[in-house]
């Protein structure tokens, strides 16, 4: 708990408008701090790669036979929400009721709005003071991985193979893993510790793309505009109306994909929109991109004017395409949870993790729970009890992996 709180207080917010790697200097400073701590703890091969912002280290094997090398990965940047002056608050033996985060600002974590929090009754919770995010996404994962390594070093009687760990920047802006050195990491498979509620085990993610829509109108005096004016702002609304209106995040769940309008701005002469497109099915994903282009053609034909232009950029793909070919890490994590009396909750990620990209780099990397809830905002919180279970899951995974007859680790 103390390690997490110390990390959480540090602002490591990433910046999508930056062109540097990492995107913010606060992340560089945090990475330098982590590297120093890992060296002081006694881990081997500690490297702060200034080219990509990642910090990596090794816990050498303590068995005299070959077992797969496992990696554990987390990101240390936080999302696009206030991260200045983060003040974590500890609530021991949580009573399952509303939590007043900030009396002065009348900010309340409501169990009616967030029933998932009420389910943590009896746990020790860490929340924000209502004015910032918490940073459990993903400093909970960072702390859990390090605490697991500390436990293994303090208990050499626990047998394990070679373990690689890595902490990286800019996951929240979708760029960090682009620069990950998968070959240098050299793990047979890995896990991102970047999930939420206890038992989450995810090996399928969205296919993801961004669509930027640029609209050029014709501005003339409104008094003589008939037959001449093309209002770019109005065309933006027309364009959006051509998309399936029920296929949006607020109306979808599970394996259902969506179109999300992230940004809209404009006037009569110019307008622009930014969308994200998501779908677990690759064919349907490609169809969504095609629809964005077809809608532009529809409007251009309607107005006999090349006024709409769409630029598509793929962001990441469904890691399930890779992991389905090698289910060792999934089966291993499932067994570890069951050994700890944790019910595995296997479900698709309605988003992506660094593992979405790292899996396509040749290291199958499913995602495990950390105990965080309500990410990316003032109502974010984390259960200390579940964080301990996440740490224990890491320990159980490496224990099982070091058993020579362990079926889940067979290729």
Tertiary shape: globular
Biggest β-sheet strands, sense, barrel: 8 strands, mixed
In the CATH scheme, the class of the largest domain would be: Alpha Beta
Strands of the largest sheet, in order across it? 1-2-8-3-9-16-10-15
Rounded average pLDDT: 95
Describe this structure in words.
- The protein has 411 residues and is α+β, with helices and mostly antiparallel strands.
- It folds into two domains: 2-205 and 319-409, Zn peptidases (Aminopeptidase), CATH 3.40.630.10; 207-316, Alpha-Beta Plaits (2-Layer Sandwich).
- The protein is built from eleven helices and 18 strands.
- It has an eight-stranded mixed sheet, covered by helices on one side.
- Helix 1 (2-8) packs antiparallel against helix 4 and helix 4 (136-154) crosses helix 11.
- The two termini are 36 Å apart.
Keywords:
11 helices; 4-stranded antiparallel beta sheet; Alpha-Beta Plaits; alpha+beta; 8-stranded mixed beta sheet; disordered C terminus; 411 residues; single chain; Aminopeptidase
Short description:
Helix content is 30%, strand content 22%.
Explain the layout of strands and helices.
Elements: H1 2-8, H2 25-41, E1 44-48, E2 55-59, E3 70-75, E4 89-91, E5 99-102, E6 107-109, H3 115-118, E7 125-127, H4 136-154, E8 163-168, H5 182-185, E9 189-193, E10 200-202, E11 207-216, H6 232-241, E12 258-266, E13 270-279, H7 282-303, E14 308-316, H8 320-323, H9 328-339, E15 345-346, H10 354-358, E16 367-368, E17 372-373, E18 381-383, H11 384-401
Parallel strand pairs: 3-8, 3-9, 9-16, 10-15
Antiparallel strand pairs: 1-2, 2-8, 4-7, 5-6, 7-18, 10-16, 11-13, 11-14, 12-13, 17-18
Helix pairs in contact: 1-4, 4-11, 9-11
């Amino acid at each position: 708990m103390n390690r997490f709180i110390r990390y959480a207080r540090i602002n490591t917010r990433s910046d999508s408008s930056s062109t540097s790697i990492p995107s913010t200097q606060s992340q560089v400073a945090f990475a330098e701090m982590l590297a120093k701590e890992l060296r002081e703890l006694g881990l081997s091969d500690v490297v702060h790669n200034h080219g990509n912002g990642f910090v990596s280290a090794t816990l050498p094997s303590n068995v005299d036979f070959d077992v797969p090398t496992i990696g554990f990965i987390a990101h240390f940047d936080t999302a696009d929400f206030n991260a200045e002056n983060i003040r974590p608050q500890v609530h021991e033996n949580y009573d399952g009721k509303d939590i007043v985060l900030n009396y002065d600002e009348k900010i309340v974590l409501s169990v009616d709005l967030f029933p998932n929090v009420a389910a943590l009754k009896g746990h020790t919770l860490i929340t924000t003071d209502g004015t910032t995010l918490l940073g459990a996404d993903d400093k909970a994962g960072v702390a859990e991985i390090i605490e697991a390594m500390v436990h293994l070093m303090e208990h050499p009687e626990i047998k394990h193979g070679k373990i690689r760990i890595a902490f990286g920047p800019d996951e929240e802006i979708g760029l960090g893993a682009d620069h990950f050195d998968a070959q240098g990491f050299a793990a047979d498979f890995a896990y991102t510790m970047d999930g939420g509620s206890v038992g989450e085990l995810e090996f399928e993610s969205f296919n993801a793309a961004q669509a930027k829509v640029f609209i050029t109108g014709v501005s003339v005096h409104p008094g003589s505009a008939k037959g001449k004016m093309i209002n770019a702002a109005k065309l933006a609304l027309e364009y959006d109306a051509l998309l399936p209106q029920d296929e949006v995040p607020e109306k979808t769940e599970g394996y259902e994909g969506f179109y999300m309008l992230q940004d809209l701005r404009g006037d009569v002469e110019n307008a622009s929109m930014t969308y994200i497109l998501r779908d677990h099915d690759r064919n349907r994903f490609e169809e969504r991109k095609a629809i964005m282009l077809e809608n532009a053609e529809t409007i251009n034909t309607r107005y006999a004017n090349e006024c709409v232009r769409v630029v598509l950029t793929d962001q990441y793909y469904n890691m399930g395409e890779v992991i389905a070919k090698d289910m060792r890490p999934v089966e291993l994590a499932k067994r570890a949870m069951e050994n700890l009396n944790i019910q595995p909750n296997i479900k698709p990620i309605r988003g992506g993790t660094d593992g979405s990209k790292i899996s396509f780099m040749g290291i199958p990397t499913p995602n495990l729970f950390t105990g965080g809830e309500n990410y990316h905002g003032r109502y974010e919180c984390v259960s200390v009890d579940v964080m301990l279970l996440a740490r224990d899951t890491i320990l159980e995974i490496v224990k099982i992996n070091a058993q020579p007859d362990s079926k889940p680790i067979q290729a």
